[in-house]
Amino acid sequence: MVPLGFHAVLPGGIYGFTRAHTHAVIGGVLVLTGLYQLSTVKQSRLRTCCARVEPGPARAADGQKKGFEHGISCILVCLGPFFFLMPFFGEMNYFWMVALTTVVTVERLPPTWGREFSSATGAVSLIAGIIVLLLRPPLPIGFVM
Description:
By secondary structure, the protein is mainly alpha-helical. It has one domain (15-54, 62-133). The protein has 8 helices and no strands. The chain has helices at residues 2-9, 13-20, 22-38, 40-50, 60-77, 79-89, 94-108, 114-135.
């Protein structure tokens, strides 16, 4: 739904807007992703999402509420890579699908260094976004669908 929302509100849709403003769009989403990856919101949600969900009361409503809250935490962990980058880098681009899925998976799997990996990807994303915005280098990997 997120790509469809972007597609509906951007002039020319995602594809036309990204082609018309390639460096601004790619640099902007890289900066946004970097800032989010480095934020305390992301770090606290990463800890919550990766934590074991303790058994709760036997009431179904309480369990449903706890599961919903845990699911929201896990969705927010993916916010930077999947909701900022994926619509503009190409939701049907195999390279970016594998790369972003790898980032989200690796930062969740190891409980001891997931935060460090998340911070590292945030720093790389932020620096790459600033470089793209300021220096406007040729972008070697196709950012088109």
